[in-house]
């Protein structure tokens, strides 16, 4: 065959490849905040006003490189929010926003890291006397239990099996791998303190014993007390229920204690319903999972109740 004929065939093949090349879908992204309130809530499980609040807080940290076709702060926030709230496979989130699955994965990790860096600004115990008195007043209105400043408990968040050395330490008493997360919330179910670094096999009492919050209570930083379940030791600043009440007074104490401390259980339930990844499990690498647990920052910025 003539060489020129071969070259011509090659050129025709190249022309065919050029004409069948897929269009660049990444340049046709719709601003999700142009959706109606109803459609926005359907897609992202939160109100548009809530999403705008989060974008406003994180915008400076999500400023993008103007080269190429970068993701706007709005797209980055809603990608992470949808992925965490709906816990769908990342390909579905990617298709909805005209990006690739690896981009969604990197975006979720980036947003989680920013949230973890800024978490202290929003997740904090009441410090002034007025703030503490208002927190105590709200708790007392539940079941007349005095001087309560917070309800404390731990919850297990499922993670994928850790195969590295020490991976068996993530297996909890229910025989699945998890992170044991300690939370203190107020009467409005707002999270005021959180510890996300402990493996699933660690007992609740040890997490509290070695946390900074315990040191602050012992140093007299707060005028109120915590309420915890019987897994915690009873101390002057952490009250637990009586195991064998024998008098009417002790029974009333237990009833009031249970009703008041139930706020943290409700907090867990609401938290996991809004963020389905916490209900079903977080299956990225373990360090990213710990950082993503701090996206409760969303919950502390805006009431979900």
Automatic annotation (TrEMBL):
Gene Ontology CC terms: cytoplasm; nucleus
Cited Pfam families: DDE_Tnp_4
Gene Ontology MF terms: hydrolase activity; metal ion binding; nuclease activity
Cofactor: a divalent metal cation
Domain DDE Tnp4: 152-282
Cellular location(s): Cytoplasm; Nucleus
Protein family according to the UniProt entry: Belongs to the HARBI1 family.
PANTHER family listed in its UniProt record: GH03217P-RELATED, PTHR22930
Entry protein name: Putative nuclease HARBI1
């Amino acid at each position: 065959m003539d060489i020129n004929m071969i070259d011509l065939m090659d050129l025709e093949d190249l022309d065919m490849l050029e004409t069948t090349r897929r269009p660049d879908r990444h340049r046709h992204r719709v601003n999700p905040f142009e959706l109606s309130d109803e459609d926005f809530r359907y897609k992202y499980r939160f109100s548009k006003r809530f999403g705008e609040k989060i974008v406003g807080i994180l915008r400076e940290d999500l400023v993008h490189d103007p080269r190429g076709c970068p993701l706007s702060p709005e797209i980055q926030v809603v990608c992470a929010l949808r992925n965490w709230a709906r816990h769908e496979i990342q390909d579905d989130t990617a298709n909805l926003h005209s990006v690739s699955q690896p981009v969604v994965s990197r975006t979720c990790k980036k947003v989680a890291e920013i949230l973890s860096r800024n978490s202290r600004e929003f997740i904090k115990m009441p410090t002034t006397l007025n703030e503490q008195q208002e927190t105590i007043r709200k708790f007392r209105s539940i079941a007349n239990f005095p001087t309560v400043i917070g309800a404390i408990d731990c919850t297990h968040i499922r993670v994928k099996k850790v195969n590295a050395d020490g991976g068996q330490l993530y297996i909890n008493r229910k025989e699945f791998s998890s992170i044991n997360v300690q939370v203190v919330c107020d009467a409005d179910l707002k999270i005021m303190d959180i510890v996300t670094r402990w493996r699933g096999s660690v007992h609740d009492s040890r997490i509290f014993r070695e946390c900074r919050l315990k040191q602050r209570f012992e140093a007299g930083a707060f005028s109120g007390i915590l309420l915890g379940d019987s897994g915690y030791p009873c101390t002057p600043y952490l009250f637990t229920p009586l195991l064998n009440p024998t008098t009417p007074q002790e029974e009333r104490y237990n009833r009031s204690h249970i009703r008041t401390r139930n706020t943290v259980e409700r907090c867990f339930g609401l938290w996991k319903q809004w963020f389905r990844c916490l209900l079903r499990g977080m299956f990225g690498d373990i360090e990213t999972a710990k950082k993503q647990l701090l996206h409760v920052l969303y919950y502390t910025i805006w009431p979900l109740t």
